[in-house]
Each structure stands twice: as structure tokens, then as C-alpha cells.
Amino acid sequence: MLHSSQERRLTTGLQEYGYGIMMAKSLRQVLEIVFDVLELLHDLYVEHRILHRDISRGNIMFVGTSTIPPISEVEQHKDLCFAKHLLNPENHPNPLETSVLLIDFNNAEILDEKHEYSQEGSVCTGTPGFIACAVQKGEPMPRPPRSFVVAEIPDAPEAYKSKHPERMCKYPPKGDEVHSPPTGDYRAGWRHDLDHEAESVFWVLVYWLMAASPVGLPEERIDKGVFSNFSGNGNNRHNFISGSMEDIGHSYFNAVVPLIENVGAILKIDRFWLPVGSPRKNPEYAGEAFQRLVLAFLADHRDEEFMNREIDRDHPRIVEKKPVVLTVHYTTSQLQGAEHSEQQRKKRKLDLDAHPTKRQRVDEESGPCEQEQKYVREEDLEPESAFPDGFEAKWTAKKKTHCFCFREVQRSGQVEVELMELSPEEVARREAMKEADESEEEGESD
Fold first, then answer.
1. Angle, to 10 degrees, between the axis of helix 27-48 and the axis of helix 194-211?
2. Which of 86, 173, 229, 431 is most buried (most C-beta within 10 Å)?
3. How far is CA 126 from the centre of its chain?
4. Coil, strand or helix: which one is 257?
5. For residue range 113-130, what is the model confidence (pLDDT) as tens digits?
6. What is the dihedral of CA 233, 236, 242, 247, to 10 degrees?
7. Collapsed DSSP state (helix, strand, coil) of residue 392
8. What span, in angstroms and rounded, lies between the C-alpha atoms of 336 and 338?
């Protein structure tokens, strides 16, 4: 028992440690972080039977100075080796040297080998935008409907081969393979697994590339279609993986596009539709292939300017603003009214053409069936806003703020509503025309 004279007060102080992956200062640094995270996830899975299950931009961190464990620990982790040692063993002799911190294990799962395919593993966990497509859906991606090509098993740099001969033996380099449509249901025992962790790392890398703005170069905004697919549902994001990656980042980083596409080619075929016995069916394979591709890219390009150019971390790229098309289904009477308006417009144009002294009232570029102009303010157009949900409720009532307008255009039996940006000159011209029309109407009424 402590007397009052023996009482002590303990104060705990917390200090922020590390930076989020989005603060990586260059493409080279972020690729080294990606390689090391994949290595950590492999070690957690193989040696400790742990799945993180929430890989995202907020849970991958790094420190300014690499952590170098005592050399005595190297013997305890013989299979663990990070990027700095593989790329430059002379300056980084300790294979355990890394700057990566993996945090937030709140959703982690400890795998029991006797019950490896438990119901817990099929629960959807993760962060939107970074969660694997299949995990987002809660089941494997759709079965390929016809014969499909499975991407090659990539080779690896010599340093990797020397360090991991057993991995090279388990997954020897091999070319593309063509498989027939699967006939059986291979989904038995589907669960969140290590290949889904690797896919989440892929999404983090894609997000970093989308946001990265190189210092000293002209601004380029993020393509709205690319951002919509990235932030969409599991099917949207899977289509994103299967398509071209040309527009994901600033054009300065076009050299990294083949790397992203090669990783996407590995991820786009769900391993659950591959035949039993294929090395690509192993949940460890996706991360293994991802590491080989990243390390080979680093070895080939690490000293090039685009790999080391500093990123403007305070001003990331933003999503571009584009004309938005909302398809509206009209009744027969409404379509007839639109057709009548179109005929009246043509008649009026012919009359103007026949009398060139009259003031031109028809905007040649406005398209057919133009209705009342409805203006909205530019600041009301958030680039991340969902379209068409809430389209009319949010903007139709806002008029005459001279930034954007809507027009209705009849195409193929439907009327589409387009959002168009107006230049200051165009706004002034339209306002002058409107005032002239109002003056003319007043004169006719008199």
C-alpha cells in the first residue's frame, strides 16, 4: 500500500510517427513502398497466418529514415527481404531495412489451418476504392463466358532470384496460357485471401498515380471517366482493370503505364476459375507476380528523371469537369411537341437565311430542339458529384448566373439533356440577344 508521500503521477505523451503513402515524394519511392508492403503481407500470411483485410491509402505509412533491425534478426527472417537491399546491396546490406509501416489491424484475421475457409473469411471488409473487386461483391468475379487468356508468369531480376530460389521454383516464368471456359463450380470455399490483399495494394498505387502532380509541369486534371470507374462498384472497377490505363495519371508518368497494365492483366482473371493444379491458382501468386514486375521496373528505370521528380504533395490533381449527358425518356406527346419545336426552329432559320438583313438569332452550334436556357453556378458543379442522380433537383432551379447552361437534344427517339460550359463572350452574346428579343416583343405589342 502506498502512502500519500509515495504517490506518483504518470503522464503519457503521444507523438505522430510516419507519413501516409500519399505523401511519397516520387514515383521511385512509392514503388519501393509498394514492393515492401507486398513483402510484409506475404510474410504475415505465410509465416504468421495473418490477413490484414483492410489495405488502403490510410493504413500504409512510411518513415523518413529507414528502420534497420539488428543483424541478429536476419537469421530469424531468412525469407524476408525488402527493396533497398535487392536494388543496392552495397549501400543497404541489411535485407530487413525498410521505411514501411503497416497499421490498423482492427479487421485482421488469424487463419486457423483446420478451418481456413471459415465463414468469417467471406465477410466483406475493406475501404471503398481500395477493397478488392471480388471482396466488394462477396463472391468471385463472373465466370469467363468463353476461352480466355491468362497472363504470363513474369521473370524476376537476378537479385530476387538469388534471394528467393524457392519462390522461383514454385512459380517458374511461363508465357500466356489459353484456357477453355470452366465447366465446374470452383467457388467452393471462396473467401477473402492473400490475392485480394495484393489487389488492394494495386488500387492504392493507382490512386497515388491519379493524384500525383509533378512539380514544375502544367496541370492535368483527372479524367472523370477514370475516376468514376475507380470509385464505382466491383464490376466498374473490374472493367477498369481490364481496359487501357493510359489516362490514369499525369502524362509525365506515361512510362509507368505498361507496368500498371501488366499487373492489371494478372488481376483481371479471378483465380477461382483457373483449373486445379495451376500455379496461378495459389492465393500467393498475385502478390508474387506483382513484386517481380515492380522490382524489374525499379531496376530498369530507378535513375531516370521521371522516377525521381518531386511530387507536389500540397496540390494533388483534381477531377476534371466535363459536359454531362442525362438521358430522359419522354412520352409520345412530349416527343411530338419536341418535333414540332424542331420544325419551328428550322422554319425560323430558313426565314433568317432568306432575309440576311435581319439579326441572326439562331446559334449555329446550339444543336436541335434547344429549350429555355437554365444557368447554374460553376461552384455548384462538384467534380465528384454523382450523375444523373439529383441532377434536376440540384441545378435546374438555378438560373441566370452566367456560367453553364442546359440544352435538350433529340437523338434516336430520345431527348438528351446536355450540360455545357459557356465562355464569358458567349454569355454576353446570349444576354444581348435576349435583351434585343425582349425589346422587339415590346415594340410589336405596342
1. 170
2. 86
3. 15
4. helix
5. 644 455 445 567 888 889
6. -110
7. helix
8. 5
Helix (H) or strand (E) holding 376: strand 375-376
Q: Has this prediction a pTM greater than 0.85?
A: no
Q: Cβ of 166: how many Cβ atoms within 10 Å?
A: 8
Other Cβ atoms closer than 10 A to 103: 14
The 10s digit of each residue's pLDDT in 151-169 is 899 999 999 999 999 999 9
Is the model more confident about 18 or about 433? 18
Ranges 32-36, 55-59, 235-239, 391-395: which has the least confidence: 391-395
Higher pLDDT, 189 or 394: 189
C-alpha cell at 408: 435538350
| Residue 342 exposed, middle or buried by CB count within 10 Å (0-12, 13-18, 19+) | middle
Look at the chain and count its residues: 446
Cell of 365: 452550334
Distances (CA, A) of 46 to 21, 51, 118, 279, 357: 25, 10, 18, 16, 84
- Average pLDDT in the 184-206 region? 85
